[in-house]
User: What shape does this take?
Amino acid sequence: MYIRQNNDSKQIKILLKKKYFDWKNTWKKPEFSIHSDPKLYAESEEYDSLLEYAKKYGMAFLPLIFEKLDNGDFYALNLLTDLTFPVYRTLFNEVVSLFCTDEFNRVYPYTLSTYIEYSKLLLTKEYDNILSSIHKILTFENEAFEINSISINNHDILLILHSENDETAIVKIYNLTGSLEYESRYSLSEGIQTIIINASNFNKGVHVVKITIGTKSFSQKINI
Assistant: This one.
């Protein structure tokens, strides 16, 4: 069972992607790669940062975790259990009793399918909470893109942006009277890029730089 994909849930994927990949990059480190126990891969600062971030949004991340498990990403079970076991450990035990026991009630070792079955039940039980969390998430964050910095270098305005996808950015610059002094569109590629704007003909003083990508905007004051 998947939650219907909409603009909000796509946005949540972007929010999760960077921190998840930061954690995933630690799996190759010798201190982790020598282990077969997935739980040991969660012993890093990157995982702690990811978990804290995920806890902030609660059940909004559950469909994404399930998707990763369903695609064979076994280490994602760390997020699944750390986020849900405090409330739903009993539900997991029920899954174990249904799918991981023999006729003598002996428990088989857990497999990826055990956690997938557990996730399916969670998605059903938490459906309303998931939709509510997804609906609210954009009121807390504005990270469709990341502003690494906006600065002045001589007569140039430097915008360093990090985009998770190929996007179009609209840059507008206003003076304090509200008059528009500059407007242009830029095609962004996935990753980090720098936009240089010649501001030598701008009026001196405080300006507001407004950057819009998709439905999300970011504004910052600068002094020219």
